Amino acid sequence: MTIKLIIFDFDGVLVDSEYIAGQVTTQELHLHGVQTDLDTTLRRFVGMHDTVMRAHLAEDVGEAHVDEFLKVIKEKSRLAYYDRLTPLPGAVDMLASLELPLCIGSNSRFSSLKDKLEITKLNRFFSEDRLYVGSMVPKPKPAPDLYLHAAQQHDVSPAECLVIEDSAHGIKAAVDAKMSVIGFYGASHCYDGYEQKLKQAGADILFDQLSEIPGIIKQIT
After folding, report:
1. CA–CA–CA angle 213, 90, 212 (5° rounding)
2. Domain range spanning residue 165?
3. Per-residue pLDDT tens digits for 51-77
4. What is the pLDDT of residues 148-196, one digit of tens each?
5. Cα 28 to Cα 111: distance, rounded to the nearest angstrom
6. Are the CB atoms for 214 and 39 separated by under 8 Å?
7. Are strands 5-8 and 205-207 parallel, antiparallel or unpaired?
8. What is the DSSP track for 20-71?
9. Which DSSP string corresponds to 68-88?
10. What residues form DSSP beta bridges with 182?
11. Residues 156, 48: one domain?
C-alpha cells in the first residue's frame, strides 16, 4: 500500500476538546432541567455535526430554545478551550516526525478549528489550505464527502489516503470513501469499550497512543 496523504480528524485525535465540550454541554443541560451525565453526553454527541446535534438537543430543550442553547455552549466551550485545551500527549512529536503530507478533515466549524489550532499551537503543522470542514461539502461525516474532497484537493486517490479517526461517524466516512482508516481511543472521552465501537465501524487498526502512528504507517506501507 502506498500512502500519499494523511488526513487527521481533529477533535479527540490531536486535542482533548470532545471531553471539554461534553462537560460544558452537560452542565448547560442540567441548567435546563435535563437529567443527564457526562458519559451519556459523550456517547450521544462525539463526532456529530452541528446540524444533527441541533436536532437531538431540540428534543431536550425545545425547538424555541435550541439555537440560543447552541450559541451558549459554543461560547462557553470556546472560553474553556482557551483555559484548558492542550495537544494530546505525543501529538506534537508525532506530527513533527511525519514526512508525508498532512491535512485535517473535521466536522467542526472552520473558525472553531482555526481557534483550537492557534490555542494549541498546532497550526504550525497545518496551513489554512490544509483544513477541510463539513461546511465545504454537501454532506458532512458520516458521509464520505469531506474525506473525498480532501483527497481531491491534494490530487491523490482515496486508496492513497490514511485517515486517523476517533469516532464511529468518522470511521464510517473513511470506509465509505474507500480509504484506509485507523481508530484512536486514547482521549478522555473514550469510555470503556469505546475501541469496540470503532472496530465495529470498520477501523483497520486500533491504537491508544499517538506515538504509535509512525510505526503503524510503516506497518501498513
Report:
1. 25
2. 5-14+86-220
3. 889 999 999 999 999 999 999 999 999
4. 999 999 999 999 999 999 999 999 999 999 999 999 999 998 988 899 9
5. 22
6. no
7. unpaired
8. HHHHHHHHHHHHTT----HHHHHHHHTT--HHHHHHHHHHHH-TTTHHHHHH
9. HHHHHHHHHHHHHHHHH--BP
10. 164, 205
11. no
* Whether residue 76 sits in one domain with residue 109: no
This prediction has a pTM of: 0.90
Domain boundary among 84, 100, 116: 84
Residues 6+ apart with CB under 8 A from 204: 180, 181, 182, 220
Compute the distance between CA of residue 163 and CA of residue 190 in angstroms, rounded to an integer. Answer: 18
| Structural domain count, the chain | 2
Q: 70: domain CATH number?
A: 1.10.150
Length of the chain: 221
Instruction: Tabulate helix, strand, coil % of the chain (nearest 5).
Output: 55, 15, 35
Q: Is 180 helix (H, G, I), strand (E, B) or coil?
A: strand
Domain endpoint, select from 84, 109, 127: 84
